[in-house]
Amino acid sequence: MYDTVNFNQFNDWFIKDNSNYKDNFSYEGRKALFDYLEELENDAFDTDNNPLGIAFDPIALCCEYSEYENIQEFWNDYDKEDYPTIDKIEDNTAVIKIQDSNKFIIQSF
Fold first, then answer.
1. Number of H helices and number of E strands within the chain?
2. Confidence grade of residue 45 (pLDDT, cut at 50, 70, 90)
3. Which of 35, 54, 75, 109 is 20 to 30 A from 3, alpha carbon to alpha carbon?
4. Are 58 and 34 in contact (CB under 8 A)?
C-alpha cells in the first residue's frame, strides 16, 4: 500500500526529523532528489505495463544518496584520479545536478 507524497511532505520529514538524517540534503538537494525520484517513478512500469511506485523510505534515501557541495568535496570520499569530472562519475552512478550551483547528489556506489 502506497501513499502519495508531495514535495511538502517529503521536505517536512527532513525538517522535522530529529535523527542524524536531518541534514543529509540541503533544501535545493531535497527538491532535486524529489524531482528525480518522481521522474524515475513516472518511467517505471511492471511487465503488465502498470505503473510502479517508489516507497517513501527517507532513511533508505539517506543511505543510498549523498549530496556534495562540489567535486572537491566528492573527492574526499572517492578517488580524484578515478573520477576527475562529473562525466566520469556519471559513467558509474546516477548524478543529480542541483540547479544554479556546483552541488550534486549521487547514488552511492
1. 5, 3
2. confident
3. 109
4. no
**Pair 100, 31: CB distance under 8 Å:** no
Rounded-to-integer distance, Cα 72 and Cα 89, Å: 13
pTM: 0.87
Polymer length in residues for the chain? 109
Range of the domain at 17: 7-107
**Does an H or E element contain 86, and which?**
helix 86-90
Q: Sign (positive/negative) of CA torsion 94, 5, 30, 101?
A: positive
User: Which pLDDT does position 83 carry in this prediction?
Assistant: 97
Residue 52 vs residue 11, higher pLDDT: 11
- Asked whether residue 29 is domain-assigned, the answer is yes
Task: Give residue 32's identity as a one-letter amino acid code.
Answer: A
81 within some domain: yes
